[in-house]
Structures are given as C-alpha cells and as structure tokens.
Amino acid sequence: MSTAIQIEGLGKRYLIRHQKQDRYLSLRDEIMRTMHRAVDKLVHREEERQRPSGIEEFWALKDINLTIEQGERVGIIGRNGAGKSTLLKVLSRITEPTEGQVRIRGRVASLLEVGTGFHPELTGRENIFLNGAILGMKREEIRRRFDAIVDLAEVEKFLDTPVKRFSSGMYVRLAFAIAANLDSEILILDEVLAVGDQHFQNKCQGKMDEVGKKGRTIIFVSHNMGLIQKMTDRSILLVNGELTESGNTADVVAAYFSDRKSSSQSGDIKTRSDRLFINNITFCHDKLAAGFNRPLHFSFGISCKTVVDQVTVVLGIWNTLGSRLVTTRCTVMLPQGEANILDIALNNHHLPPGNYSLSVDIAIAAETIFSSEHLLFFDLSDLYVTERDLIPFLKHHRDKLGAFVPADITINAAVP
C-alpha cells in the first residue's frame, strides 16, 4: 500500500489584530502606510522584527505529523476551533502552511462548504458542468458521469431550476454527488453530510464504500460521532491545533469523550438575550442510590434582569455513537435576580453505565436564545447494573430511542 498523504512538522500561524482600525483613510495615508511596510521589510528580517502592539500570534496547527495510506478512510474529530478545517484547507491547497511540509500523491477533490462553486442564478444542470469543471473534470467526463451524479443527488425533478431555490439539503446532495463522482485519488469532506437525512447518509456511506474499494483515499470531518464511526476506519483527534490521538476510530472517539468528562461549566455562557444570562451548569447524581436508574440532576445558575415568563428549557442526552437517548422539556417562570438556581431532575432515564453529553436549548416565548449540542459531558460508569436492570433498559431503548422523559423542576429564587 502506497502513501497518499505525508505530513511532517506541519504548522499554521495566523496574526490576530486587536487594535482599532482607522475608519477613514485618505489616499496619502494609504500610500505612506504602504511605503513604511516596504521599508520595514527591507530593513528588518521577518523573524527578527518585533510585532507591533495589538497583534497576537495564533497557531491553528502545531507540529502535525501524519501518514495516510492510499485507500484509507480517515476521520478528523475535535472541538470547534481545534484546527480541523484549517488542516483540510492546507490539504486542499487553499492556504499555505507556515512551517513543515505536506506531500500529496494524486488529484484532490475537496468539498469544504455546501455548494462551493455553485452559481445561484444557474440551474442544477448548468451547475453540474460548472462545478465539475472547477473540480477539474473535462466536459466529456461530466457527460459520462451525469446520470450517476443526478441519481446520487436525487434532484432530477429540479435540474432546470436555479439552485438559489434549492434547499440546503438539495445543495449538499448535489455538491457531494459531483465531488464523489470526480475521478480523483483523494476525497476531502468537511461536515457536508450534517444536513442530509438518514436515507441520504446511507447512500453516501454506500458511495464511500464503493470509492474506497477503488483505492481512493477519503478524509472526513464531522461532529457526529455516529457518522464518523460508520464512515471511517481510522481517525485522529485534534486538541488546540495539536494531534493528540491517532488510531482505530472507536478508540479515538472514546478518547475524545474521556478527555471531555466535564461535569460542570463555569463562567458566563452567552445567550441571544439581554434579559437572561447563564452563569454555570452543574451535573450530579446520587452515587449511593441502588440500581442504575438513579435521578440525574442538572443545575443551571441563571441571572435575570427582570422577571422572565415562558422560559422553555429542552435537554437532550447523547451517547458516544451520536444517538439521542433521552429528551426532556420544561417551561418555567424565572424571577428577577442574579443567583437563580434551576434544578432539573430526571428519574426514569434508563441510561446504562457509560459516557454521555448534554445538549441544551433555551427559548423565551418560543424565540430560541441559546442552543448547544455538546455543552456538558458526564460519566455514569460508576452505576451498579444487574441483569434485572438491563431487561427494562433494552426494551425501553429498543422501542423509544430518544424518548421523552418527564422531569422534576425546582427553582431556588435569588435572595433580593
């Protein structure tokens, strides 16, 4: 098996400017600024020149070393801002690395954003030829693969409709179908299946299996751990721009969750409302209670500038495979104060031992002010489970995946 991608000492640095920019500049100011920069480059070497105040260096990638063999299906996982998209941009030759080198053997087809290269005023048929040409396909090659592209995208009825009228799902299906049918050796995908339904994801998995058997290399980025485990055999974990784990996908996903066993979130959490602020979120459960179906308590520290009616909180509990096992919803009235405590207790959750994450959605009068999929990670590995416990659990989650579980609500109002 030959090497498709060889990465050695890869680093990518960005400069973040913090100083306030002048709003209006005259032509003379711009000319003088350009001349100063040119003289500065001539007089001082880049590595020795001190950065001006207000400019911060940020390393999106640091010392990445990775070898990807031909025909491998590799997943890249990590938190937002970990460097996943930056790595894909370097591999796609969209941006140049600051240090290190990348050797790529073969033609690369990358799909980093939904509908990249689409012209909104052109029809689906015209955009297939336009996008195919951007990706390096010849006209005859596009014609030869046209039916396969349309069949995979399932947009036959809308081929002669401008793509500006397409839904996001239609966009991503058509974009993926074009990239997947490109005769390239390396296919790079960044969250492009996030808006696809289960039927489309199954078709994509089948297509990726098909192209994998042809010896094509696939690099896939997603926050959906279930999708990552279905579509890749090997994965890497990025943390703050550094590669911390590499190996079997199941092991890397387990490491991703184990590194994030945070049972609390402290500090102010921003919402899209100036009436309500979240100070902290804490998880706890009674370790001394018998059985595995013990109450789970999620406590929210909330500050309210005024009395807030109709505050709806929706909690979802997810497993490491990306499946939502439990959902609960409550609507409360929160009094004015800086130390309100909202305690939500789940009694009949039927969760077995393992690692889980909590999603939180908060709305005021049906207007969403906060939404986060993996806000909190918690561990139930210390649960004591008997064979008698497992029978109702298996029946419950076989019949009711993502079932609604009523919650007990307690509000401790702030002391005025």
Explain what you see.
The protein is α/β, with parallel strands linked by helices and 416 residues long. The chain folds into 3 domains: 12-58, no CATH class; 60-258, 3-Layer(aba) Sandwich (Rossmann fold); 264-412, Coagulation Factor XIII, Chain A, domain 1 (Distorted Sandwich). The protein is 26% helix and 37% strand. The chain contains 9 helices and 19 strands. The strands form 4 sheets. Strands 5-6-7-3-8-9 form a 6-stranded mixed β-sheet, sandwiched between helices. The model has no long low-confidence stretch (mean pLDDT 79).
Write the layout of secondary structure elements.
Elements: E1 3-17, H1 27-43, E2 55-69, E3 73-77, H2 84-91, E4 99-104, E5 108-111, H3 124-134, H4 139-153, H5 168-180, E6 186-190, H6 198-213, E7 217-221, H7 225-231, E8 234-239, E9 242-248, H8 249-258, E10 264-265, E11 276-285, E12 296-304, E13 308-318, E14 324-334, E15 337-346, E16 355-364, E17 367-379, H9 387-399, E18 403-404, E19 407-412
Parallel strand pairs: 3-7, 3-8, 5-6, 6-7, 14-18
Antiparallel strand pairs: 1-2, 1-4, 8-9, 10-11, 11-12, 12-15, 13-14, 13-16, 15-19, 16-17
